[in-house]
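Protein folding task:
====================
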Amino acid sequence: MKTNEQTLSLFENYLAQIQYPEEPQQLYNPIIYSMSGGGKRLRPVLLLLCCEAFGGNLTEALPAAAAVEIFHNFTLLHDDIMDNSAVRRGKPSVYAKWGGNVAILSGDAMMIDSFSRLSALPQEKLPRIMEIFTRMALQVCEGQQYDMDFERMERVSVVEYMRMIELKTSALLAGSAMIGAVMGGASADDCQKIYRYALELGLAFQLQDDLLDSYGDEELGKPIGGDILEGKKSCLMLNALSRADEADRVLLRTLPFDETLPAEERIARVKAIYDKYDVPHLINQQISTRFDRALAILDTLSIESERVEHLKVFARSLMKRKK
């Protein structure tokens, strides 16, 4: 079996060979720009790892891997429009560089392209994969809508937030893993287990990302406290609101928007309330629970343990854990 690094290299080589038409430039240049912008390639790599774990042909699975990566990047183009984001992966977003109309249309073309890539898959597996891909795509849209809804809702529960990130973030990772398992010839039971493994892993990853936004390091590539200053209903904010007394709840709702205070002070004072109610520890516990659950699911698969090891390595690498 290939290592995770070899799998990534295989996919990058395949992706580099994809050619888009030269005209119209305003449609295709943003796509090329977006797809060459780096990124972790988490979803296509996991798809290929799952395929190989069940004895599948990686060459046959590469179009599916490309489909999920192109679809993922399409969602980023549209996310940047909705969030008015000028930067993506350390450089100008397509929205900032070409404008909203171009980002919409190029994103639409990427979404169409992602579905067209699936036509290269073995015909006997295509109906099932199309079903998974379509459901996954719709779930991402549902999650994005809930995320936008939360911006205007005065109260959002932790349960509602977890459902939102399950749809917006985890569903794409889980769907990719399940497509890989189908390509590998996994049983229906193992496909469901692979889906749950990736779903739990995706939830752990998003919770960790929320935590790092307030408690991470500037070297991660984004300023610390961005979620706080935006007044975002993150898992930290919602858990703090559910535990705080009334006076602290008022501060949590007003401090992020108090422009009479420097940004650094607003961040520090909100984090002080988080610390008061032990929110970082609580989130870390949730991350560990999800991560451990994901690894435990892998041990129930009906394949040899050595074939599962690469999936465990992927999980540890994603969460930057040694065990």
Notes: The radius of gyration is 20 Å. The chain is about 75% helix and 0% strand. The longest helix spans residues 188-215. Strands lie at 87-88, 91-92.
